[in-house]
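Fill in residues.
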C-alpha cells in the first residue's frame, strides 16, 4: 500500500490512508496519492461526481437480488455492531433470520467471522466484521448521506462534520490488525488474534465488570506467550492501560482455562501517540514489557 503513497508521508498518516482505502488497488490509487487525505476523500468518495461515491453500491447490486437487508447489516457492522444479537436488535429481526444473510456475505468475502484466538472456529462466541476497510468506510460515512449530498450537502462539510471527528474510531480496528500482523513476525507466537470473554466471577457478581477483551493474544502451541493492547488515540497511552490488563484482563483469560507460557506472557503495548512518563519508566524496569509506535510497524 505504501507504493501508492507519497514517499515522505509519516507512518501515522500512512496507516490512516490504508485504513480508509483498504487493500484494493483501485481504492488505494484513488485515495492514497498526493494531497491530503481530506482532499482525496472529499473529491474522490464524498462528492457525488467522484468515482468512488457509488462504487460499493454498484458492486453489491450486481451480486445481490434484494440488497435491502444486506445494506442494513453492513451499515450496522460499519458502526461497530459485531455480535449477531446486537445486529438482530438493531434491525428488529430474530437472530436466526439473519444467519443466511451473514453466510452469503461471508461467501462473498465482504464479511469475516471472528472467534477468540483460544477457541476453535465452531465457537458460539463468534463476531462479525466487514472484511474490506473502504467498504466499512463507505457504509459508515457515505451510504447514509448520499441523498443529502445529492440534495446539496457539500462534500467538504460532510468530511468536517461526520468523517473527521470519527476518523480515529474508524482507524482503530485497522491499527489493531496491523499490530497483530507485526507480532506474528517477532518469533514469539505461531498464532495471533484477539480474545474476549466473561470478566472475573467476583466482578460479574458485583456488576462492576461483565466482560473483558484483549486486543492481541499470541499462542505458542496452546499456551499464551504474548498479550498486548493497541490504542489509536491522540493522547499518550497511560500506565492505567497496563494496570487494567494485569488486574482484570489477564486474570479473566486465566479463568477461561487458557494456559500461559511457563515464564508468563510477554506484554506489548502499541500506541499511536507514544506513552506517558510512568509507563515509559515501567518499560525500562521490566524485561517482559515492550512499547511499540507506528514507526516501528512501517
Amino acid at each position: 500500500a505504501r507504493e501508492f503513497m507519497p514517499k515522505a508521508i509519516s507512518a501515522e498518516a500512512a496507516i490512516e490512508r490504508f485504513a480508509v482505502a483498504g487493500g484494493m488497488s483501485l481504492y488505494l490509487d484513488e485515495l492514497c496519492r498526493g494531497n491530503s487525505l481530506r482532499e482525496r476523500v472529499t473529491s474522490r468518495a464524498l462528492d457525488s461526481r467522484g468515482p468512488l461515491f457509488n462504487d460499493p453500491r454498484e458492486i453489491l447490486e450486481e451480486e445481490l437480488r434484494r440488497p435491502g437487508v444486506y445494506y442494513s447489516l453492513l451499515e450496522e457492522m460499519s458502526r461497530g455492531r459485531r455480535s449477531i444479537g446486537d445486529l438482530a436488535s438493531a434491525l428488529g429481526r430474530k437472530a436466526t433470520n439473519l444467519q443466511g444473510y451473514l453466510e452469503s456475505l461471508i461467501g462473498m468475502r465482504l464479511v469475516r467471522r471472528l472467534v477468540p484466538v483460544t477457541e476453535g472456529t465452531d465457537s458460539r462466541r463468534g463476531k462479525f466484521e466487514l472484511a474490506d476497510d473502504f467498504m466499512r468506510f463507505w457504509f459508515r460515512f457515505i451510504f447514509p448521506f448520499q441523498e443529502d449530498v445529492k440534495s446539496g450537502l457539500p462534500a467538504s462539510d460532510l468530511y468536517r462534520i461526520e468523517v473527521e471527528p470519527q476518523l480515529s474510531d474508524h482507524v482503530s480496528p485497522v491499527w489493531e490488525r496491523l499490530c497483530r500482523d507485526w507480532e506474528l513476525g517477532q518469533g514469539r507466537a505461531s498464532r495471533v488474534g484477539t480474545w474476549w470473554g466473561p470478566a472475573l466471577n467476583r466482578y460479574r457478581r458485583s456488576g462492576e465488570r461483565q466482560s473483558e477483551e484483549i486486543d492481541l493474544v499470541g499462542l505458542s502451541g496452546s499456551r499464551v506467550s504474548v498479550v498486548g493492547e493497541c490504542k489509536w488515540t491522540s493522547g499518550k497511552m497511560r500506565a492505567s492501560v497496563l494496570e487494567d490488563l494485569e488486574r482484570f484482563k489477564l486474570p479473566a483469560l486465566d479463568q477461561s482455562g487458557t494456559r500461559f507460557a511457563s515464564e508468563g506472557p510477554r506484554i506489548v503495548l502499541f500506541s499511536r501517540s507514544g506513552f506517558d512518563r510512568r509507563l515509559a519508566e515501567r518499560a525500562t524496569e521490566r524485561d517482559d514489557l515492550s512499547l511499540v509506535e507506528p514507526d516501528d510497524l512501517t
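The mean pLDDT is 95.
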